[in-house]
Each structure stands twice: as C-alpha cells, then as structure tokens.
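re: ur question from yesterday

yeah so i grabbed the chain u mentioned. its 633 aa long if i counted rite. heres the sequnce exactly as i have it in my notes:
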Amino acid sequence: MLIVATSAVDAQQYTLNFSKTSSRMSWNHRLPQWTYTTPVRLSSAGTGRSMLRINTSANMSSTFDERGDSRNWQDNASLNTSIDYPILGPRASLRLGANMSVRSATLTQQKIRNHSYNAGLQFSPLQQGRFRSLRINVTPGLISASRATRANLDSTFEERGIQYNATVRVSPELNLAGKRVTNSLSLSKTDNTLESNRNQSERLSTSVGYTLPGDVRTNLSLNESRSQVGLPRSVSIHRVVNGETVTETVVVVETQQSRNSQVSGNVSFKVAGFDLRSSGSYSENLRTNTASDDDSPGNTFFGKDRESQSWRLETSVSGQLFEPLVGRSTVRINNSSERFLPVQLPGDEIFRDPSADLERQNLFLNGSLDWQLASQHSIRLSTYAELRSEMNPGNREQDREVHTSSISLSYDGVTEGGTRVNANLESKYLHRVNLHATRSGDNSRNRDLSLSFNTRYQRLGMNVTHDFSISARRTIYDFDREVNLNAALRKSNIRRGWSMVHSVRRRVIDSMHLNARYTYNADDYGVLLVERGAQVVAEDNSGHRFSVGMSYSPATSLSTSINYNRSVDRQWQYDYANHVEERYLSRRNEREGLSTSVNYNPDSGTTLSLRASRSRQLSGTFDSVTVTYSRSL
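ran it thru and got these structure tokens back, copy pasting raw so excuse formatting
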C-alpha cells in the first residue's frame, strides 16, 4: 500500500530574541518549522506517485512588565502540526492536524488554554474539463477552549465541542466570442458548537471579467460575509432575602451577529489616445446583538444595533495633451449613512437612539499637468478641491461642511554638474462651516503656504544634501471680531516657521562609512489681528538636532555601527503689560542618545545580532538591549 522512495527534511531557522528596556523584558523563541516530505505510491492510483508531507511549528514567548508597583509576567506558547497524506494520487489528500496554545498572566491570575484536533479532506474531483480547477476542502475536528472575560476577572469560560472548516474554490475556463472570461467563485464556512467561545463565519466571493469589443475591459465582483461571535457581559440580579435586597453579579454570553455585502465593478478603455477608467461600488453592513433590547444598568449593548450603507463612484482620465505635456484628472463621489436600529421594549414600547445617526457626502476633484522641459528637467502643476458634509438628523448641532482646496507647482531637474534640484510651492485652503447657529462661532478658515527647496550632489567623495523650507499657517474664525471685541481674547491665530536640514555621508575606506546630520527649525505662534494684519506673538520655539554615526564591516560576515545624537528644544513665552513686551524662557528640553549594533552572519547559517542603546531626557535615563540569535537546523 505504501512504498517509501526517498525522504527529505527541509532546513529551518531557530530564532531567539531577547529585549530589555527600563520597564520591560521579553524573550521570544521561534522554533524551527520542521517539514518532512516523501513520495508514496498507492495501488489504487496505479504507478502514479504523490507526496506525503508532515509539518510542525512551535513558538514560545515571555514578557515581564514592571511599571510602578505593577509587575506582570505573561507567557505564551503554541504548537501546530499537520500531516497531509495522499489517498487518490493528485486528486485528493487527507489532512490530520492539531493546534494547541497556552497563555498565562500573573496580573489577572488566569491561564487560558485552547487546543483542537481535526481531520480534513482536500478533494479535486475533476482532472480535465472546464472545472478542473475545482478544489474542495472539509476539515472537521474537536476543540477545547477557555477564555477570560473582562466583565469578571475571576470568571473563565471552559468548553469542549466540535468545529469544522469548509471551502470550495473554482475558476471555470470559459470563452465568449473567442475571448477568455476570467471568473472565480469561492465559498467558505467556519463553525463550532461552543457558546461562550462561539465563532461562526460564512463568506461568498465571486468575480467576472471580460474584454468587450474595442478593447473595453470590464470586471464585476460580489462579496457577502456573515459572522457570529460570543461576547460576555455582567448582569446584576436583585433578590430579596429576609427583607433585604441582595445583588448578585453573573456573567452571561451574548451573540453578536454581523453581515456585510458589497458589489463593485469597473470599466476601462481608450478614447482618442486618452485612458479612461470608471469604477463604482455599493456596500451594506448590519450588526446586531442579542442583548440590544435589555434596558438594564451597565449593559453597553442596549440599543446599539447598527446599520450602514455606502456607495462610491469614481472616474479618471489621463493622456498626452501634446508632445511634452501629460494631463490627469479624477472625479470621485462618496455617500454613506449609518444609524442605530429601533428595539422593542416590554409594553410594546419602541426605543431608538438617533444621536449617532450620521450621513456623509463627499465630492473630490483633482487634476495635474506634467511638462517635460528636457531630458532631466520637468515641471508639475497639480490641484484638487474637495467638499465634505456630515449631517446628523438626530442632533442637528453636529451638522457641518468642510471645503478643502490646494494648488502646487513643483520643479525637478539635474544641473550639468550633477546636482539634483527640487523646488515646490504649495497653497492649501480649508473652510469649516458648522451649519447650526449655536456652533457657528467655531467656523474657521485656514490658509497654508509653504515653499521648499532641496539639493543633492556629490563633492570630494561625499554625498551631500541640503533641505530648506518656509511655511505659514493662518487660521481666521469667521465671527471672531464680532464675538471677541478684546484683542487679547481673539481665537484667530497665525504660525510662521522655517527649517533646514544638512547631511553628509562619506566612505573613508572600503569597509567604513561616516555620516553626519544637522537640523534646525524655528517658528512663532500668536494672535492674528485680522483688521490690522498684525500678529501678537504669544510664543516662539527653536530646536537644534545633531547626529553623527559610523558603520564598519571588517568582513562580509561581520558589520558594526555606532550612532550618537543630541537635541536641544527651547520655547519662549511673551507677556505684554503697560505697552511693554517681556520675553522669557518657559521650557528647555535636552535629549541625547547613544546606540551601537553588531551583526554576525557567517555562511554556516548562524546569525547573531546585538543592539544596545542609552537615551537621556527630562523624564530620566533609559537603557535598551536586544539580542537576536538564529541558526539553521
């Protein structure tokens, strides 16, 4: 019945990772995934041969957290193994599997165990014809699970039962008018007989694609999924004993159900040299819970059954307007709504919470022009506009609209000396409008202006970069001057700032590299007097950051690096009294850090990595050590 011809065991990696910080220490063992394969021959399959496969994997980890007076050990371990045995040659195979996991934590004093055993059948009944891609996989088994509940840390649900997984996949070979119809169908289902650890899901997925005459490519897909999970909650039971009310808290398990449906499609084609693409989708979601109609204190599921719908349409066009100019444009419309569902209460009373009802609408339009000036010089002009609205029928005070627009002009090129230059000028505008009069005082307009200039070049064996940027952000509240007559109480503000970054990298010898980086940024913030166009500065900030590092590789199997960084941030506040300005230092923050690493990777299959760092800041000094060891077995 079984003839062993040859056998093979695949080489796998064992990895040990150790990490230590000021408040956390962890170990993580990733044991080798052992794989054994051997060809077998069955008398029922003639002289054909198939492969017997055995797979085993395991992981273990431990974590120790120490924060203040709280100390917590947490251990995790898992083991998975499976055997695939061919029973009808390439047409079918039998799988036997086992999965076990253990999790324990000293803080909650709980140990959670899960293990399952299963036997599965993978079957491909057809070896020829249109449906030869049909695959059937059925895996029933036994499951034992335990789970803690947040409702009561002393309660742990332990159950045993039956579970199964089943999937059917097929991609029929179909032709229409001499062209291939790409299509696929997938069905899957997972279920078990447990209650507190209930986990049931069903999924249907199908898609069809076809190229119509004129090279018009189309695609349509449909997805449907349903699920049920068990969620614990605490319930208070009041009883009268000897004339006194006694309250008992018990943990019950509720069933939460969800259903998701989505249909989408797209079509793309060319017209007069332009690529056009249009797509659309519609989706629905329904989430319910068996405790939704229980109006008891502390029930977070009461009245929270939710339903939502959304749809989207998008059309884009791109193409060459003339020889050096390429244009692109996109229009997108989104619409969605969600709300809580009504629940039936005792006495034929109906309750529904309308405060979370929300309807969203979104209109987006963008476009860009790319102009190739020369082989290494180009200019790009891009812009977009967006209108977003949010309406709450149950609470009109939350209704609002947001208008956003942007325009940018960028240049990218390379000079004759090999210096790459990039410049970008951008302006953004945002207007928030609260449609209800009670919140109109928060209506505001933002204007952001930014200019950046970057260069990259090589000189004297060094790679050098320079980045400069300047920006300003102005926020004006629509009714600020009418509501706040006192200039000191104005909410309109402006922030201005600039920054620069310089970096150098150089190879000293073939195996050694040095690098350095310096960053400086400064900005100020204050009240904006719109009618005067002036700023009353309230604070200004500045920051210096410097880092230097070295990497050295004396051999192909060994590499080391060391890096040092230091930063200083300052903030100044301003006071104005009797027409006198006073500036004083309100905050000074210094930070520095040192890190080093060593990586050893010989050809023998053993790797070792070590990393250590120390950082010092206002909150204290923190050390970190990480060691990773890996070996091929």
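noticed a couple things. The first helix runs from residue 480 to 483. also The longest strand covers residues 244-271.
anyway ttyl
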